[in-house]
Amino acid sequence: MSQFPDVPVTDVADDAAVLDIREQDEWDAGHAPNAVHIPMNDLPVRLDELAPFLDRDEPLVVTCRSGGRVSRVLPWLEQQGYDVANMEGGMRAWHAEGKPLEGTSGQPTII
């Protein structure tokens, strides 16, 4: 059992600023409209981009495709001072729920 809260996608607003840690090609294929994209391996050098999320009253919701990468990133983000939560089921669950997707490839969005 994770020490971090799991947030069901149904509880995440369509326009929420979630942190998407998937790779660039996954992001380009389809992402939540207001998500912040920092691939997992880039987080250590781009952490300052998350500064606006430090003083929020609610946790920073983090997502990947299905949750595997998030489980490795949440403990590290917590050590950096962030209040974090996992978006349960990741972007696969987001897509399955029919939530909005944007792509940057000009092709239909996919997850």
UniProtKB/TrEMBL annotation:
CDD domains: RHOD. Residues 12-103 form the Rhodanese domain. PANTHER family: FAD-DEPENDENT OXIDOREDUCTASE, PYRIDINE NUCLEOTIDE-DISULPHIDE OXIDOREDUCTASE. This is Rhodanese-like domain-containing protein. SMART domains: RHOD. Gene3D superfamilies: Rhodanese-like domain. It holds the Pfam family Rhodanese. The lineage of its organism: Bacteria, Bacillati, Actinomycetota, Actinomycetes, Micrococcales. It comes from the Bacteria.
